[in-house]
Automatic annotation (TrEMBL):
High-level lineage: Bacteria, Pseudomonadati, Pseudomonadota, Alphaproteobacteria, Rhodospirillales
Taxonomic superkingdom: Bacteria
Region (Disordered): 17-41
Bias (Basic and acidic residues) ranges: 20-41
InterPro entries, alphabetized: DUF2336 (IPR019285), UCP035865 (IPR014598)
Protein name according to UniProt: Uncharacterized protein (DUF2336 family)
Length: 381
């Protein structure tokens, strides 16, 4: 290890040959030695002053040697870390990627400098604080935001994710990064479904002789199927935000409400009716589950939904009261299947006249859901 520490021979070599290469080698050794906690306070102050001088060296390779060897040094003075981080890319990136000496404020300032390589280095840090992630979401380039989206160490709030999808939702690399995250709010997932679907429709029309109406119909079905899947099992607060977003973008359609209700996603129905009728979810819930159906009729009319879907919603609410979870593995999926089965076997008697597309959708979903209970686990000896 002695050849990695600055020696009198190094000083003499530097005096005899002050070339870029010699200065870079000296900077590397001094930077490594700076991590030595046995240095006295006076020795450390002297080393810091020498490092500050080297950080202003005209040769990039000298400054780069400092950055590469001080990048993860917790004893690096803050002003020196900032100097290196503001330098040219080859000097700045090693420090920007890992240095814990840099503050969120330092990083945000550099993000706003609009240098893509520096933004990307910050986005790849092992930990990216929420404020830094938000700055990247607002001002980062597509490459930097893609790195941020795929970084599981980045603290991405729902607001930051909204900004990312709004700016780069049609980017496959950004989509892939977001999809790979451990937690994805349903409002973000729904937006991604919509963005991906638009791209899907464009490719479909390019490659196959479908009419625009046929492609739009296929798009709507795939989007609604995915959206219903997102809402199932989510918290009420999340579903409230989802239906609000759907309405804002004209996607809270009568068909998605009917299909969700017939699959037993009553929380989605309650939130959707509340959104459309302009009432609190708690009030919508009381009206929907009124045993005399006057409440359901009242909120239905206030929501402005087409009369043709009222029998289906009434049937879904009635059957919901008669259907329970079995409490076993995948019981939510079996519950949805039982709801659909009962509605499809009784809908004629209940006065329901499904649209053919809704009927096909429910039949298709029923075929994908489990009908049987999981095998019993044998008792242990």
């Amino acid at each position: 290890m002695s050849d990695q520490r600055l020696s009198i021979e190094d000083v003499q070599r530097l005096l005899a040959d002050p070339s870029d290469q010699t200065r870079a080698r000296t900077a590397e050794k001094l930077a490594r030695q700076f991590d030595d906690r046995s240095l006295s306070p006076s020795e450390r102050r002297m080393a810091e002053d020498i490092l500050r001088l080297m950080a202003r060296d005209a040769a990039v390779r000298v400054r780069q040697a400092l950055s590469e060897n001080l990048r993860d040094n917790a004893l690096l003075p803050h002003d020196l870390a900032v100097t290196l981080a503001r330098d040219v890319e080859t000097v700045a990136i090693p420090v920007l990627e890992v240095s814990q000496v840099l503050t969120p404020e330092d990083l945000i300032e550099i993000v706003r400098g609009q240098d893509e390589a520096k933004q990307t280095a910050i986005a790849r840090r092992p930990t990216v604080q929420a404020a830094v992630a938000d700055a990247l979401a607002q001002e980062g380039t597509e490459k930097a935001v893609s790195a941020l989206a795929g970084n599981l160490g980045a603290d991405l709030t729902e607001t930051s994710m909204q900004r990312i999808v709004d700016r780069f939702g049609d980017s496959e690399s950004v989509q892939g990064g977001l999809i790979s995250r451990d937690v994805l709010p349903i409002t973000i997932a729904e937006k991604l479904v919509n963005q991906v679907s638009e791209a899907f429709r464009a490719r479909l029309l390019e490659r196959h002789p479908l009419s625009p109406d046929a492609a739009a119909s296929l798009l709507l079905q795939s989007r609604e199927r995915a959206t219903i899947g997102l809402s199932t099992g989510s918290s009420e607060e999340s579903v409230i935000r989802l239906v609000h977003q759907l309405r804002q973008h004209g996607r809270l359609t009568p068909s998605i409400i009917v299909r969700a209700a017939c699959m037993g996603d009553i929380i989605f129905l309650e939130c959707a009716m509340a959104e459309l009728a302009g009432v609190a979810v708690a009030n919508a819930r009381i009206l929907i589950h009124d045993s005399g159906h006057l409440g359901l009729r009242g909120i239905f009319e206030r929501a402005g939904l087409p009369e043709s879907i009222y029998p289906a919603l009434r049937a879904a609410v009635d059957i919901f009261r008669q259907t329970d979870y079995d409490g076993l593995e995948r019981d939510r999926e079996r519950y949805s299947r039982r709801m659909i089965e009962r509605i499809l076997t009784q809908y004629g008697d209940l006065g329901v006249d499904f649209e053919s597309s809704d009927l096909e959708y429910l039949l298709g979903r029923m075929s994908q859901l489990p009908a049987t209970l999981p095998p019993a686990v044998p008792p242990t000896a």
